[in-house]
Specification:
alpha+beta, Cytochrome p450, globular, 6-stranded mixed sheet
Length: 404
């Protein structure tokens, strides 16, 4: 990809550093890019070259759902990227296109349907009640992240995945290393390899299983030769990692509710609006740093008058799409009455997050249980003293000191 191969006047390439942003501040570089144009060019801290960035809601949905933009072609490229790790691995579900991507996701679809998620609702509710009981019995102050927001999503995703309770801590440690660039690429890649080896053993033991958990569904699919063991392991790792993103998202949600107590009080007083309010919080919170995985244009495509050439790398920003003023009136405001709310916090198109329904369930349980059971819940430190994670791909508080 060279500028000499393009005949149109190109926008400048903007360096997009990996900023450790305070609290729930919106990325100022992304805000500038949104103002500069619907289609701009960026260079991230790792990888090579530059890539297009698409920020408008309709354009983001187009790119993510259009077969003219593919993930598999990234395999053959050193695309500019945020993290030093997350180098594309051939066969990984995140870098597959249909029909292979569809075939692989189909194997676990039953676990993430409404029925599959409902299967773990009651167990999830009980696990959450136990965590809140333990926090209340120890008395204030407490770190809400350590006491509840961290262990709860781990327990839920492990329950859905079929990972025994004794192995939850190891899963959590591996996930934290994979989702951070602070320890270097080697440490992150080693954690990914160790998690992969674990799932290889677990799935291999369940080839004859009739269980409804993800490891059993994958084991049965491997046994029927619908997918390879390597494909099943790659999907399991992706789902396990994604399941813990709820920790950071819920951490940001409670940071918002505890720094804007009028919002929390409204949710206590009007429990019927909680599902809609959680959707609005999911739209508003800046859940990640910069951008995720890129795509490659498989043919020339024009977006908003900009010619994207075949072979060019393209990123979409879901955060920017969720603040598009053409779709969301007063997009920087949190409006619990916002309807409709077509946010793209879980992605769009074939790579839409399979765990979206589960994440909503967990968020609703967390908000409802903590607001109802701990009516005096408030920050134990000034808002500016809440520490946020450094070098994290998924943003969230390192700790959330609270009292009641």
């Amino acid at each position: 990809m060279t500028e000499e191969t393009l005949t149109e006047t190109l926008p400048p390439v903007r360096n997009w550093p990996a900023l450790d942003l305070p609290g729930t501040d919106f990325d100022p570089v992304l805000r500038e890019l949104m103002a500069e144009g619907p289609v701009t060019r960026i260079k991230l801290p790792n990888g090579e070259g530059w890539a297009w960035l698409v920020t408008r809601h309709d354009d983001v949905r187009l790119v993510t759902n259009d077969p003219r933009f593919g993930r598999e072609a990234v395999m053959d490229r050193q695309v500019t990227r945020l993290a030093p790790h997350f180098i594309p691995a051939r066969g990984a579900v995140g870098f597959l296109d249909p029909p292979d991507h569809t075939r692989l996701r189909r194997t676990v679809a039953a676990a993430f349907t409404a029925r599959g998620v409902e299967r773990v609702r009651e167990r999830s509710r009980r696990m959450l009640e136990e965590l809140v009981d333990a926090m209340l019995s120890q008395g204030p102050p407490a770190d809400l992240t350590t006491a509840v927001l961290g262990p709860f999503p781990i327990a839920v995703i492990c329950e859905l995945m079929g990972v025994p309770a004794a192995d939850r801590e190891a899963m959590h440690t591996w996930t934290q290393l994979i989702l951070s660039s602070a320890h270097g690429a080697d440490v992150s890649e080693r954690a990914k390899q160790e998690m992969s080896a674990y799932f290889s053993d677990l799935i291999g033991l369940r080839e004859d299983s009739t269980g409804e958990d993800v490891a059993s569904l994958l084991g049965a699919a491997v046994g029927r030769r619908e997918v390879t063991l390597d494909e099943a392991v790659g999907l399991a790792v992706l789902l396990q990692i994604g399941g813990e993103a709820v920790t950071n998202n819920s951490g940001q949600m409670f940071h918002v509710l505890l720094t804007r107590p009028e919002l929390a009080e409204r949710l206590r007083a009007e429990p019927e609006i909680r599902p809609r309010a959680i959707d609005e919080l999911l739209r508003w919170i800046p859940h990640r740093n910069a951008v995720g995985l890129s795509r490659i244009a498989l043919e020339d495509v024009e977006i908003r008058g900009v010619r994207i050439r075949a072979g060019d790398a393209v990123y979409v920003s879901y955060l920017a799409a969720n603040r598009d003023p053409e779709v969301f009136a007063d997009p920087d405001a949190i409006d619990f009455s916002r309807s409709p709310n077509p946010h793209v916090s879980f992605g769009f198109g074939p790579h839409y997050c399979p765990g979206a329904m589960l994440a909503r369930l967990e968020s609703e349980l967390l908000v409802g249980t903590l607001l109802d059971r701990v009516p005096g819940l408030r920050l134990a430190v000034p808002p500016e003293e809440v520490p946020f994670k450094k070098g994290a791909l998924i943003r969230g508080p390192e700790a959330l000191p609270v009292t009641w």
